[in-house]
From TrEMBL:
PANTHER family documented for this protein: DDE TNP4 DOMAIN-CONTAINING PROTEIN-RELATED, PTHR22930
Cofactor(s) listed in the protein's UniProt record: a divalent metal cation
Protein name, entry field: DDE Tnp4 domain-containing protein
Record-linked InterPro entries: HARBI1-like, HARBI1_dom
GO cellular component: nucleus
UniProt family annotation: Belongs to the HARBI1 family.
Keywords noted in UniProt: Hydrolase, Metal-binding, Nuclease, Nucleus
Any Pfam family matching the protein: DDE_Tnp_4
MF annotations from Gene Ontology: hydrolase activity; metal ion binding; nuclease activity
Residue ranges of every copy of the DDE Tnp4 domain listed in the record: 28-177
Localisation per UniProt entry: Nucleus
Amino acid sequence: MPTTLNEQQETIRKFRSIANFPTVIGAIDCTHIRVKKVNADGGQLYINRKGFSSINVQVVCDADLKIMDIVTRWRGSVHDSRIFRECRLKQRFEAGAFSGILLGDSGYPCTPYLFTPLLNPTTPQEERYNRSHIHTRNTVERCFGLWKQRFRCLLRGMFRDIETAKKTIVACAVLHNMAIDMREDVFSGERDSIEQYSSEPIVQRYIAPSIRGNIRRRQFIETHFQ
């Protein structure tokens, strides 16, 4: 994650250039990486809502599709909101370590530092907020698409032991960031599949916003989307 004020301001500037959504420092989401069936005690907890064994991986990316923060320790049955609730990054936001906010989908509760879309926008301002939010947050979907096209093992699945799978996922994230820094493209002919992946709808159980988050989001809309 960007640490200095200048780094944070540059990250915010790049996100704002996408759809004019201010003060965004990262886009957050989770993606399931398939793993082999776990036969040990608790193995059924790796089975996700789609019926296969996986690790639910939380990622925060920047506007350049680089992975700034990653959590790989949770089993596939765990909901996205719990992973964020118990991660170190949430503690850093609550401690005031960052000057910006995260954008997440409706699978997360709306908080003062993590904004989600409005479930039922009723005014032009709310509709503008939702449009801008969706376009800006889509960055993390594009990040997943590019990352998985670069490293097909993330698409096919990890069939070593669980600890090796977790380390491999993190290694792929590091190499993905290095490839972006070196301006390496994916193989020719794969761009279409990346766009197709990033446009797939993600079905998430709606999480009600917190009172503080709802108030902060309302103030934000009134300030920036009039």
